[in-house]
Amino acid sequence: MVTACASRCERKPSICHIVLMHADLADTLALDAEVALAARKIRILAQLSWPKSEQDRFLNAFKRGVPYLPQIDYAPVDLDASERELEHIIQRADTSHALGDYVSKTAQSYFWATQMLRARGTEQMTEHSIRIYGRPGDAIAGQELTNLDAARHFIQVANEYALEFSLHEAEYCIPAEVVRDTLVQRLGEVFTSHHIDVDIDPDLVAKAAAGPTRIRIRAATCFSEYDINQLVEHEAFVHTLTSLNGRAQKALPSLSLGSPRTTGTQEGLAVFAELITGSIDITRMKRISLRIQAIDLALKGADFIEVFQFFMDNGSSDTESFNSAMRVYRGAPTHGGHAFTKDAVYLHGLISVHTFFRWALKNHKLKLCRALFAGRLTLQDVLNLEPHFDSGLLVAPMYLPPWMLKGNGLAGYLSFSVFANKIRLDSVERAELTVAH
Fold it and tell me: I need a labelling partner for 53 at 20 to 30 A (CA). Which of 73, 141, 181, 368 fits?
């Protein structure tokens, strides 16, 4: 293994100093490079995507009163070599120390992803998805409450709010071209050493998709101010930002890729960014929550048409209802009882990240919150790898979102949150009733 690491050093001289400074970790660093290489062909969302033509076909049939269950033919992908290499890495990784454990878990996560992708369109796909992402009903941060409880709460609040106020989207429509120009300007103010392309994609089903150097937005779509701010904070200043920062981690190249096991933290961090910047609204919280309920319905037997109708009944347009139902059934049979469970991580991730930030403030470890942006990491990774940030093996993030740079504002928000969480609403209500009587 040391020989393999030396060979890697010869190919990439820029990492030689890392190998020399951390010779005791040379084998593990070489293994991580192998993980990054093996993972290149594993592109979960791209390999589970539905063709745009399926949306048009289904909606036309629905409008004629003859909806059908979509049957998707997924393009074949050869992952045999990646799978064998990942198995080999898992067998060799030394899990007795934090870095080796990180490499092992990352390789295992990608291996499970290959198993899930092999099972596309079959009933076995669901069990692989649950192993990676969990499912509705999973407990939140060790509490008795679950992500499904959280989803029901936000849906109830949104519905109650709608009784008194309007939850309709803004009446004006911001076209994709204006959104693109706005994103280009705002991204340029933060990513000063990188150029991020912002493209309008007529074939994109989601409203947006972000990579390390490119963000795509859906063509022929109306956007609101909230949409723009959410795209900036969620897609650009978390997903793109952590990918770019991960590329700067010469010792651990896998940090730029985002293994499947990091999804909960990454999506939770992205929604937390929306929350702390005031970019999220109750309608967005309802949309996220409805997806979790929809996964639960699908796992309990609802088919694609029933889940599509569930979104329609909850106020979504036919196009957005199709897109949301499609998210639930990516790679899964559409006849019911199965689902792609990735969207179950959003609220679980949000609450976990929020709790982590509050814990960091209380324990004088806000530096760990910054480390969270140094690549595609889980919350546990940041804790376990803290000594390697201190030693210089892992470098501080090149970029941070603007709100993270405003330490006083972040501390103010978190300190209020920590204190306010001590106040029980039921006690306040009882006190008010006592005074009233």
Answer: 181
